Amino acid sequence: VERTLSIIKPDATRRNLTGKINAKFEEAGLRIVAQKRLHLSTAQAGKFYEVHKERPFYGELVEFMASEPVVVQVLEGEGAIAKNREVMGATNPANADAGTIRKEFALSVGENSVHGSDAPETAKEEIAFFFSGLELV
Ligand code: ATP
Ligand code: MG
Question: Model's pTM, two decimal places?
Answer without folding.
Answer: 0.97
